[in-house]
Structures are given as structure tokens and as C-alpha cells.
Amino acid sequence: MVRTPPRSSLATRATELVVALQQRFVAGLERASAVVGPADRFSAAEWLRDDGRHGGGVRWGMGDSAMYQRASINVSTVHYDDLPDRKLACACALSSIVHPADPRRPSLHLHVSWTQLRDASGYWRVMADLNPCLPVEDDRLAFLEVLRRAAPDLYEGAIAQGDRYFYIPALGRHRGVAHFYLEGHDSGSWERDAEMAGQVEASVIDFYCGLLGRALPPEPPTEAQLRAQLDYHTLYLFQVLTLDRGTTSGLMIHDQNDEGIMGSLPAFVDRALLASWRERVPVPQGELVEAIASALPAGERAEVTAELKRKLAQVVREHYRRHPAALELQASGTVIPPTVDNHR
To answer: CB under 8 Å, gap of 24 or more: what pairs does 283-289 form?
Structure first.
């Protein structure tokens, strides 16, 4: 079975952009890992939408290494050229998450996508957020400056929208320390927008790989630092599975790439801590939190395996099938585009 390419020339160009960014990121992450030993080598896994008839993608991943607890750099191009009644024509995306093994190194989330509708209109989605479990103010400020230089005219609005999207009301805090988020972006010039999206993502990739490549003090992380990492990763999973609109949209549309869609989940979380947040969320989301916690293995350090990702994907689907109105409780920026399909 082979992935069929889209007919749209814009989709082809968007795919070339996200593939180039994927290659840049994987190469940078492999180079950065050499600071802690032999360079890591990422491996590729392909997935197909409808046996390749509607495209698919390739995910480069790494887990349980000296540098990376978990990393997923996923590119996909989905199209419906043979289904003219579908509102979505095609969508191309890079979705990436890196969770380093050492709690003194921050996690990073990146996303860029081009969505094209049947009437030939379309929009960009551009995201970049720094997610440390042990925040360093100088790193936060440097990250924001990279974004400001990459998109000076869009910076203020994207930061405001990102701060809104990644806020967790139940816990009274944000997921990360710096959030850039453009949703439904269309300036009227595809070329200008593509250049901006590529500049933002490439600048963040280079900055982050440089950050990872810095040498840390020789002593291993303390128990308190490892505890902070586990607590933060629990919060990260909580935000992704109860608030992230993109993740939920992908899971509700199809079940052909559950592991890729859930690629942002960290490797270990605290089941009891997660369950303790049940009473803090609005009805009926407490049921979702309880179902997620029940799916996790017992113990303070519950491992999120590939099998568990698939199980959690089904937990989320079943919850929103029972409570479709609860989708309105998910996070949103200042703009919510007419999402008609998921592109991961």
C-alpha cells in the first residue's frame, strides 16, 4: 500500500515545507543528544489514511534514551481528492513534541499546518510553546525573543492567543511558560504566510536544539527535581487529554493514527495526582478524568506505553460520544476556525 499524494499544488508545497522542517528537527535533536553520549538515532514509522488512498504520514520517534524520555516528530498529508462532497480538500502538518529525560532540560511542542477547503480557501496554524518542569527565566525570555524576531508583526497577538489556549482553569496555571499560537491565519498571500510559518518553526527548532545541547552540571538530577518532572508530566497529560482541541478532534475523526495523535504524552505520570483533579473540572469532565486515571496502571509512576495510548484514545472517544456538548469545554484561542477534519 502506498500513500497517494494530493492533487493540490499548495498542498504539495506545504508538504515540502513540513518535511523539510521535520528533517531539520530530527537532525538537530540527534546532534544535541551527543552532549550526553553517543548520538541518538531516531526511527521512522509510517501510517496510512484509508490504506493510503487519502494520504498518511511518517513519524520519527525516540524514547528511553540518555537524552530523550520521549520524542515524536510527525508529518502528515491527508486529502480527499476522490470525495468532492467533503468540505476538507487537504491538510498538511508537522506536529512535534520532545520530552527530555533530564528534568533540567525543558520539553517543547511545535505544530504547523496548512488546511485547504474544497472552495480553495485555506488557513495556517502555527504553534510553539516551551514547557519546562523546572522553569528558567533566562530561557523563557530568550525563547520569546526568538519568536518576536521570527514574526514581529504577529508576535503580540500570537502570544496572547497562546496564553489563552494553554491555560488550565482547573489548576489555575498555564501548561508551559511561553506560548505562540496563530489559528486560522490567512493574510491573503500564501507565499508570505508559508515563509512566516517556516521562519517561526525553523527559528524555534534551532534555538531549542541549541538549548538541549548545553552541558548540565555533572551531578545527576535530585529526587526533588525528578518529582517535579513527574508532577509536571502528569499536568501535561491532563491538559492534552481534557483540554486540547486538536488532539480530541483527531481522535473523534478517525482511529488510524492513535499513537501519532497521542505522541505528545510523556512516558510516566502520577495516577493518584491525576485522579485528585477530578473534582476541580466542570461537569461532565470529572467522568473523563476518572476514566483516564482508571486506565492508568497502579503505582505512583505509571508508564504510558503505546498500548496505553491506544486505550486512552478510546477513553476520550467514548466520553465525547456520550457527552458531545462537553467539546465546548475544550481550550480555544481568540479564533476558532471551521475545523472540518484533523490533519495528523
So the answer is: 284/319, 284/322, 284/323, 284/326, 285/242, 285/326, 285/329, 287/319, 287/323, 288/241, 288/242, 288/315, 288/316, 288/319, 288/326, 289/238, 289/242
Q: Please state, as a whole number, how many other Cβ atoms lie within 10 Å of the Cβ of residue 117.
A: 18
* Residue 155 pLDDT exceeds 80: yes
End-to-end CA distance of the chain: 19
- Hey, how many other C-beta atoms are within 10 angstroms of the C-beta on 55? 25
Whole-number Å distance between alpha carbons of 241 and 248: 7
User: Is 145's pLDDT higher than 70?
Assistant: yes
Q: Using an 8 Å Cβ cutoff, are 250 and 111 in contact?
A: no
Please give the Cα distance from 143 to 177 (Å, whole number).
Answer: 10
Residue type, 247: T
Cβ(261)–Cβ(273) under 8 Å?
no
The answer to whether 133 and 229 have CB atoms below 8 angstroms apart is: yes
Q: Which of 82, 57, 92, 53 is nearest to 72 (CA)?
A: 57
pLDDT digits (tens, 9 = 90+) for 72-86: 999 999 999 999 999
Taking the C-alpha atoms of residue 119 and residue 222, their distance in angstroms, rounded to an integer, is 56
Q: Residue 184's closest CA among 159, 160, 158, 204?
A: 158
Cell of 179: 506560548
What pLDDT, on a 0 to 100 scale, did the predictor assign at position 336? 55
The whole-angstrom separation of Cα 301 and Cα 134 is 19
| Cell numbers placing 323 | 457527552
The one-letter code for the residue type at 4 is T
Read off φ and ψ for residue 108, nearest 5 degrees. Answer: -140, 140
Closest CA to 18 of 142, 113, 143, 134: 113
Contact 44, 57 (CB under 8 A): no
Cα–Cα nearest to 333, from 198, 205, 154: 154
Question: What kind and span of H or E run contains 318?
Answer: helix 306-322
User: Are the beta carbons of 107 and 201 closer than 8 angstroms?
Assistant: no
